[in-house]
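Repro:
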Amino acid sequence: MPLIFGVYDVSYVLVDEEYVIDEVSIKFTSRIREARTKDEPKPPHIPPDPNRSRQIAQIVELLMEADERTLRAVHSVLRSQSIREKNISSNEETTE
């Protein structure tokens, strides 16, 4: 769907599966997708791990040994997640 927004030069923000355009939220669905996800349970909330510092240190150590392709892939995933979370938190602040 972002392709159609680009054709008309419309800026948007993607929050979860909804496109936000000028305070209007749009969610595109398909019947196939709805049928596949209808009965799937939502994942449980995972509390922070008490060993978080050790996990971060291990991740950094592994990244030091990784090749450029792996570094770029990890960077892309983390950056996308960070942007998504910032968009979600900014939308929660505006709705309160």
